[in-house]
Design a protein that fits this description.
The complex is a heterodimer of chains A (about 375) and B (about 80). With about 375 residues, chain A is α/β, with parallel strands linked by helices. In chain A, about 40% of the residues lie in helices and about 15% in strands. In chain B, a hairpin with a 2-residue loop joins strand 2 and strand 3. Classes of the chains: A alpha/beta (about 375), B alpha+beta (about 80).
């Protein structure tokens, strides 16, 4: 497949013109929420976000950044753990290490004797870390949505198969649909529909969102990440609004099947159970997270961690931004005290965070 | 961060394989996808293939956007 067609300027113009047609027939501002940091990125890096807004379509970013939604309780517990426990290797994805906590970020915390913090690209790397460091405890701070959870489940199963007694997991794995219910239950946004995340949906399929058209009467489409993919998703949602027939459409059928990835879902089910979980900006959301079935591998149990902290930098509005209740530009710290060099909240740290994306690409204009 | 571009599987050895894009090769864990084959394009997330791209659906999407393009350019002529 030649993906360049999905970024082609003339193609994008034709899809924008289709969207403009729907918007002028609707005759009012339309608000769609996207729930994936990569969609935010696609929209702003191309200038399409600003262009669509001028045409009457607002794309609002929801809780689509896993680093951002990880609660301070887990981040602070990780910082305390590596600062106070000797001979411990704390591994996580790179952006997680830069999230501010009351004790500084994981990169700033001074590790206890023999301990250190390290970043990994693939969760599988922690198996090698545990094998290479048999005299140390290795803790993997595992954050992510359904896209990431199956790979973490694979690593947990592998750790058990290899009987790696020195590896444990501080789990912050979250399930995407429950916060959407939380957002819709307050009904504060006046949302007209959703653009659902492409790769979360590769794993969970389209059924997982069915409560949204059925209970809340709102349309939505699962979209891919090239500019044309995002626009095709938006067209699908606008068509559903126009026809008054809300559903969950798959506008990314080359990757997403209605049933999802059954192997991946089976592996998640084998290793984890669904539990109530805390989200930054939301508090505890019922059945929105994963908990290890084998508590012996749970770092929070193994090290008796206190996950109760809820610290944030004074004035940081990440929580509201994650709920779609504020935009980065609404925060007085945005691009003043809080910037990519000195981020004060996770939304300015993560490559998928709204604040960092708006900071880098917020001024990009699509030349009409 | 979701990588939009599917990567070609160029080698398979048990649960592991190698994917290539633009001349860069990297290892990939294939245990989450059903019957991967050399020459398939995989969507890879954090070192794990999460799905094999459906070529027929990819062609359909390209045909669909070609229709929008034709319609828009037909109008502007």
């Amino acid at each position: 497949m030649d993906a360049s067609a999905l970024r082609d300027e003339r193609t994008v113009r034709s899809l924008v013109s289709e969207i403009s047609g729907f918007l002028s027939r609707l005759g009012r501002e339309t608000k769609l929420m996207e729930v994936c940091g990569t969609h935010t990125m696609t929209a702003y890096r191309s200038g399409l976000g600003r262009l669509l807004r001028r045409r009457g379509l607002r794309l609002i970013s929801g809780p689509g950044c896993p680093v951002c939604v990880t609660p301070d309780g887990i981040m602070s517990a990780a910082a305390t753990l590596v600062g106070h426990t000797r001979n411990l290797l704390l591994a996580s994805f790179g952006d997680m290490l830069k999230v501010p906590t009351s004790a500084g970020s994981l990169l700033e915390v001074i590790p206890a004797e023999g301990s250190r913090v390290t970043s990994v690209y693939s969760p599988q790397e922690v198996i090698g870390l545990a094998r290479a460091n048999p005299a140390k405890e290795v803790v993997f701070l595992a954050a992510g949505f359904e896209t990431t959870s199956p790979s973490i489940a694979w690593v947990v199963r592998e750790a058990r198969r290899q009987a790696l007694g020195n590896l444990s997991f501080l789990v912050s794995l979250r399930i995407v649909p429950p916060p959407l219910r939380a957002i819709l239950s307050t009904n504060a946004h006046g949302l007209d529909g959703f653009v659902y995340p492409g790769h979360v949906s590769v794993i969970i399929g389209s059924e997982a969102y069915r409560f949204i058209p059925e209970e809340f009467g709102l349309p939505g489409a699962i979209s891919g990440f090239e500019p044309a993919d995002l626009l095709l998703g938006i067209i699908s949602v606008l068509r559903q609004i126009e026809q008054g027939e809300p559903k969950v459409d798959i506008a990314y059928p080359r990757a997403v099947k209605p049933e999802g990835n059954r192997i991946a879902m089976g592996l998640i089910e084998e290793v984890f159970e669904v539990a109530d979980a805390e989200w930054r900006g939301f508090g505890t959301i019922p059945k929105s997270g994963l908990r290890l079935r084998d508590a012996a591998l749970d770092a929070a149990c193994r090290f008796g961690l206190d996950l109760a902290s809820s610290w944030e930098n004074e004035g940081c509005r990440c929580g509201e931004i994650l709920r779609g209740a504020a935009e980065p530009e609404d925060c007085p710290l945005f691009m003043t005290a809080c910037n990519p060099d000195t981020p004060l909240g996770p939304c300015m740290v993560s490559i998928e965070g709204s604040c960092l994306i708006h900071c880098k690409y917020g001024a990009v204009e699509w030349i009409e | 961060m979701c990588l939009a571009v599917p990567l070609e599987i160029v080698r398979i050895e048990g649960e592991m394989g190698v994917v290539e894009s633009g001349g860069i090769r990297r290892p990939v864990n294939l245990s989450l996808v059903e019957s991967p084959k050399v020459g398939d394009y995989a969507i890879v997330h954090a070192g794990f293939a999460i799905t094999i791209m459906d070529r027929r659906e990819a062609e359909r999407t390209l045909a669909l956007i070609a229709e929008y393009l034709e319609a828009a350019e037909g109008e502007s002529k």
